[in-house]
């Protein structure tokens, strides 16, 4: 058996594809076995215990071993040190590609080019002419074009808001998003062929829907957890300073529930919400903050004191949710999504069960 330290990239790639494929058959494994991930991930960032980031480059002894592991790799940070692009976890990429049920001759649209690795897998299997990929960041699209061309793959790479699609090449047979969305963007629905499958992260899950007519689609969530970088769009910062002036109210819902058992359903009830947590010197949780792009903000102390401000009372949404899910964590695959021209609705267990309306864009 080859030791990681002296294995070549080819050997590591073969072991990696073999490990990804354990227990499953997938047409995509041959693409994972052939497309060099290190061509798309030239370096990545690792976070230390204190939260600082360290860049790991080709010269680092652990570089290739990490690139060929089932790990999401952060590849871009903004000036505040917040991750803005990554190469997603390969196991999750494989599950999403499988869920896409793409076949020879299908045209695919990808929202979120990032490194270009997923676009490379798509182009490798379906042909470059059948793949369009879009990223909002011009630096990323330029790099991706260059790297794809080194891999002798030439999908169409566009710079822009991926939620607007790319009309010139529509209709698409398959649509995949690799940035977190709050709903299936209407422009993508209208650029999907009848019968098209759309696989997209919504909240902290991945929805798989089939388009059944103009503005209509339906399907369910995959069982896998997913934490994708959110689609970049302008939003207001949290208004924590304003909370000081608010009267505290009591809640019976434990603060830690929003970080744990209610996290996924909350991401459907409050699409695109952000959260943070506060801890004492021993690392024990003291409170949780929530905010949304419209400036609505809430904080809850572990002892049950809540403060809320802004157009939407976010903690009220948490309390409402806790009534539906008083104990345990609901399974992702029990949630579904129904899309009609009137709107998009996520439901639990059955279309007429508890449901939450997604925003229109
Ligand atoms: C998880 S990364 C994508 C990973 C990528 N598919 C790969 O294989 O490397 C998410 C990407 O979505 C992009 N993104 C965020 N908002 C976007 C938007 N509105 N339109 C298109 N891309 C967007 C980010 O710039 C980031 O590169």
Overview of the molecule:
By secondary structure, the protein is an alpha+beta fold. The protein folds into two domains: 4-221, 3-Layer(aba) Sandwich (Rossmann fold), CATH 3.40.50.150; 240-324, Double Stranded RNA Binding Domain (2-Layer Sandwich), CATH 3.30.160. The chain has eleven helices and 19 strands. The strands form four sheets. Strands 7-6-5-8-9-10-11-17-18-19 form a ten-stranded mixed β-sheet. The longest helix is centred in the N-terminal third of the chain and has 13 residues, at 9-21. Residues 84-88, 111-112, 114-115, 117-118, 134-137, 140, 161-163, 178-179, 228-229, 231-232 line the site of S-adenosylmethionine.
Outline of the structure:
With 361 residues, the protein is of the alpha+beta class. Helices cover 25% and strands 29% of the residues. A ten-stranded mixed β-sheet has the order 7-6-5-8-9-10-11-17-18-19.
Features:
2 domains; 5-stranded antiparallel beta sheet; Double Stranded RNA Binding Domain; 10-stranded mixed beta sheet; 11 helices; 361 residues; globular; binds S-adenosylmethionine; Rossmann fold; alpha+beta; 19 strands
Largest sheet geometry: 10 strands, mixed
Molecules bound to protein: S-adenosylmethionine
Please, what is the CATH homologous superfamily of the largest domain?
Vaccinia Virus protein VP39
Give a count of the beta strands, DSSP E runs of length 2 or more: 19
> Quick check: average pLDDT?
94
CATH architecture of the largest domain: 3-Layer(aba) Sandwich
The strand line-up of the biggest sheet is 7-6-5-8-9-10-11-17-18-19
**Shape from CA axes?**
globular
Distance between the termini: 51 Å
Could you please say which CATH topology of the largest domain applies here? Rossmann fold
CATH class of the largest domain: Alpha Beta
User: In percent, how helical is the residue content?
Assistant: 10-25%
Radius of gyration: 21 Å
Structural class: alpha+beta
- Which regions have little confidence, pLDDT < 50, spanning 5+ residues? none
């Amino acid at each position: 058996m080859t030791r990681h330290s002296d294995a070549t990239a080819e050997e590591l790639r073969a072991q990696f594809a073999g490990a990804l494929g354990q227990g499953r058959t997938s047409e995509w494994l041959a693409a994972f076995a052939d497309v060099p991930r290190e061509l798309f991930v030239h370096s990545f960032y690792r976070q230390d215990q204190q939260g600082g980031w360290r860049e790991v480059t080709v010269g680092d002894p652990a570089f290739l071993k990490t690139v060929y592991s089932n790990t999401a790799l952060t590849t871009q940070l903004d000036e505040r040190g917040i991750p803005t692009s990554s190469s997603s976890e390969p196991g999750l990429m494989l599950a999403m590609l499988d869920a896409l049920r793409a076949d020879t001759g299908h045209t695919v649209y990808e929202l979120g080019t990032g490194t270009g690795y997923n676009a490379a897998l798509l182009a490798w299997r379906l042909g470059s002419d059948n793949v369009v990929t879009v990223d909002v960041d011009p630096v990323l699209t330029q790099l991706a074009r260059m790297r794809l061309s080194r891999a002798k793959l030439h999908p169409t790479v566009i710079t822009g808001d991926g939620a607007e699609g790319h009309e010139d090449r529509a209709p698409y047979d398959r649509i995949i998003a690799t940035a977190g969305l709050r709903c299936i963007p209407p422009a993508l629905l209208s650029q999907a062929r009848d019968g098209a499958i759309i696989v997209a992260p919504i909240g902290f899950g991945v929805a798989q829907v089939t388009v059944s007519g103009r503005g209509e689609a339906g399907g369910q969530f995959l069982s896998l957890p997913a934490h994708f970088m959110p689609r970049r769009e302008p939003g207001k910062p949290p208004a924590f300073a304003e909370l000081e002036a608010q009267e505290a109210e009591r809640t019976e819902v434990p603060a830690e529930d929003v970080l744990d058992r209610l996290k996924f359903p909350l991401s459907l009830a409050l699409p695109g919400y952000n959260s943070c947590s506060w801890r004492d010197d021993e690392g024990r949780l003291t409170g949780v903050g929530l905010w949304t792009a419209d400036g609505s903000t809430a904080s809850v102390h572990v002892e049950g004191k809540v403060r809320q401000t802004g157009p939407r009372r976010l903690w009220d949404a948490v309390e409402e949710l806790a009534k539906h899910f008083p104990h345990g964590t609901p399974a992702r695959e029990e949630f579904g999504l129904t899309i009609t021209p009137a709107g998009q609705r996520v439901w639990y267990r059955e279309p007429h069960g508890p449901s939450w309306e997604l925003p229109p864009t």
